[in-house]
């Protein structure tokens, strides 16, 4: 059964407590928290205060995805407000090894994110240090985009690297996940699926999450 992480980017921001409780009551595993700064990605989402508001009501781990430049400046603050996993983009970190260490020192699990155009091979020297690798299956910045199909082959490549290096890193996929793409991803070796619009735009989000869990 895959880990399911609904993205709060697709929740109703005017009713964030209600949507947080909906996820508490669902069979989802994590809250996926998308932080966008309008610089690393061409969109602004929300930051620390909104994440804290979600955290106050959340009864499941927060999986924080930092789509920001200089993420090292914010890791300690996200750790302090209760992030369990913090993922940083490889493309935003000139000193990725140091940044992974900083996330762990802050008491969190460390994830590294790759954009669709970044090859898995950049992880060779750090894969045993990663608790998670998050592969973007859309270009980051917006919910509701079309799934990039070459991600399936990329998951297989990543799985090979993880097995060969005896890493315990989980594979998480983010963008355009639905039942069809989710099934192909799980079959290819994905451990965790992020789903935003597919969950929150559905008339029955609870059943949608169950359907994703059963992939
Ligand atoms: C995209 C974000 C995703 C997004 C996924 O930049 O990182 O987490 O919310 O949204 P869907 O599932 O709608 O593609
Ligand atoms: Zn995300």
What ligand species are in this complex?
A: D-xylitol-5-phosphate, zinc ion
| Low-pLDDT segments, ≥5 res | none
Globular, elongated, flat, extended or rod-shaped: what is the shape?
A: globular
Radius of gyration: 16 Å
CATH homology superfamily name: Aldolase class I
Indicate the percent of residues in helices. Answer: 25-40%
Q: If strands are numbered along the chain, what order do they take across the biggest sheet?
A: 1-8-7-6-5-4-3-2
Strand content: 15-25%
Number of helices: 8
What's the domain count?
A: 1
The second-level CATH architecture is Alpha-Beta Barrel
Summarize the biggest pleated sheet. 8 strands, parallel
Q: How many E strands?
A: 8
- The overall pLDDT, averaged over residues, is 98
Name of the top-level CATH class: Alpha Beta
What is the CATH topology descriptor? TIM Barrel
Q: Termini, distance in Å?
A: 7 Å
Supply the key terms.
single chain, TIM Barrel, eight-stranded parallel beta sheet, 8 helices, binds D-xylitol-5-phosphate, binds zinc ion
Quick synopsis:
The protein has 215 residues and is an alpha/beta fold. 33% of the residues lie in helices and 20% in strands.
